[in-house]
């Protein structure tokens, strides 16, 4: 599958934020006939906890005419990936990476916040122009 237009941007932003990219893409294999490629896997050392934090990131651009349609597609994909990761016993946290302008507008709607909360969707918002992570919603 083709990489999202912001794939390299998010990858660079994560590295700038202290993360090390360990898989690009992260291959999620439920069984030999059901395989998904999630955009990235990254990790970073947590000195205070003397451990390593690991994340898996699905990147979405939200550039289509209908943000709601893009959200529906991203939500469905996220839930399939989240369920698949649980199925194989993967402990890394799954995040959906979205552009900061989409996060600051569409993702702040009360109903969208309820959906995110209900399904435990973790979000990374990123600034595509400055190639930085704007916020984390865990």
Annotation keywords:
138 residues; alpha/beta; 8 strands; two-stranded antiparallel sheet
Explain what this protein looks like in three dimensions:
With 138 residues, the chain is of the alpha/beta class. The chain has four helices and eight strands. The chain has helices at 7-16, 67-87, 100-104, 110-119; strands spanning 20-23, 26-31, 34-38, 40-46, 51-59, 93-99, 122-127, 132-137. Strands 1-4-5-6-7-8 form a six-stranded mixed β-sheet, with helices on both faces. A two-stranded antiparallel sheet has the order 2-3. The chain is globular, with a radius of gyration of 15 Å. The chain starts with 6 loop residues before the first helix and ends with a strand. The relative contact order is 0.17.
Task: Please render the helix and strand layout as text.
Elements: H1 7-16, E1 20-23, E2 26-31, E3 34-38, E4 40-46, E5 51-59, H2 67-87, E6 93-99, H3 100-104, H4 110-119, E7 122-127, E8 132-137
CATH architecture: 3-Layer(aba) Sandwich
The structure class reads alpha/beta
DSSP strand tally: 8
Which term fits the overall shape?
globular
| Helix residue percentage | 25-40%
Order of helices and strands: HEEEEEHEHHEE
Strand order of the largest sheet: 1-4-5-6-7-8
Task: Say what the CATH topology is.
Answer: Trna Endonuclease, Chain: A, domain 1
Unreliable spans are: none
Q: Approximately how much beta-strand content do the residues carry?
A: 35-45%
Domain unit count? 1
- How big is the Rg? 15 Å
Q: Between the first and last Cα atoms, what is the distance in angstroms?
A: 27 Å
């Amino acid at each position: 599958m083709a990489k999202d237009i912001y794939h390299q941007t998010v990858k660079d932003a994560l590295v700038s934020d202290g993360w090390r990219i360990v898989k690009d893409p992260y291959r999620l294999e439920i069984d030999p006939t059901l395989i998904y490629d999630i955009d990235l896997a990254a990790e970073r050392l947590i000195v205070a906890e003397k451990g390593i934090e690991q994340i898996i990131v699905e990147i979405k651009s939200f550039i289509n005419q209908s943000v709601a349609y893009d959200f529906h597609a991203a939500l469905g994909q996220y839930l399939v990936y989240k369920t698949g990761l649980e199925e194989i016993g993967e402990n890394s946290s799954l995040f959906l990476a979205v552009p900061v302008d989409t996060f600051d507008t569409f993702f702040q709607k009360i109903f969208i916040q309820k959906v995110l909360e209900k399904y435990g969707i973790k979000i990374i918002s990123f600034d595509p122009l400055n190639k930085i992570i704007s916020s984390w919603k865990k």
